[in-house]
Amino acid sequence: MPKTLTIQDFFKMFPDNDACLEHLFQLRYGAEFPCPKCGVIGTFRKLAKHPAYTCNCGHHVHPMQNTMFRDSHTPLTKWFYAIYLFTTTRHGVPAKELQRQLGVSYPTAFRMAHLIRKHMGFTDGDPSLGGHCEADETFIGGRQHTGRPGRGTNKMVVFGMLERGGDVMTRVVPDVSRASLLPHIQRNIEKGSTISTDQWLVYDKLPELGYEHGAVDHSREEWVRGPHHTNSLEGFWSMLKRSIRGTHVHVSRKYLANYCREFEFRYNLRHSPQMMFQRLVENF
Ligand SMILES: [Zn+2]
After folding, report:
1. How far is the CA of 76 from the centre of ligand 1 (A)?
2. Kind and range of the H or E element at 194?
3. How high is the pLDDT of residue 98?
4. How do beta strands 212-216 and 194-198 pair?
5. What is the pTM of this model?
6. What top-level class would CATH report for the domain 132-251?
7. Domains of the chain, residue spans
8. Which of 51, 222, 228, 250 could form a disulfide with 196 if both were Cys (CB 3.0 to 4.6 A apart)?
């Protein structure tokens, strides 16, 4: 098992902008890359004044193209270090902290943080779930409110699906209606799987959709019924909420999905956290 990347390892790998750019170049084109224009292999070299590589024939390639660094004036070293910071904390990195550590403005730090969260979601992907799964909704932000929020409350709803012993997947949804929840299950959980939920009525429809369904009645303080419980997902919710509360004062609806993506990525790599950085810098 590879060891955790220390800060010394990090700076040895990415000492300057050219090293970061070279990493992107190797990742995207590699040493055996034939020039798209003249067809000659292995002739590309870094241009002195631009973040680009050139072939002897004069053809340029831009390793930052189509990455989150594309339109950024922030040096690549700062980006890579920010990614490193995200992989060395359990509870996420507030923009304020990035601002301080990188010496960039708050809006820049904020934008970087959200692009990195999106990148975590992209890297994590959306594997399909199966076997024994749990599904549950939770409410984030807004004023305290008991029960299911209806119209007029400002709580946001996140829907979660989790394969026991496997991955978690979340979606920010408009409400807890059948139409808002069940299509996500149909899209992401294999038919024939077993799904444990709480007593919320919309889940009663699951057997008709081809799933084994079992519910526990939280309103009657029933937490486990045979193999059925939603404890794994409850554990994920409490980590997500604790982290959001601890790290971020306020989370707007616009950005909630990014926070969820970040914590999905963390959860899904929970057995090999030392792989987080590597996975992130290998997926551009
Ligand atoms: Zn060429």
Report:
1. 26
2. strand 194-198
3. 94
4. parallel
5. 0.87
6. alpha beta
7. 7-124+277-281, 132-251
8. 228
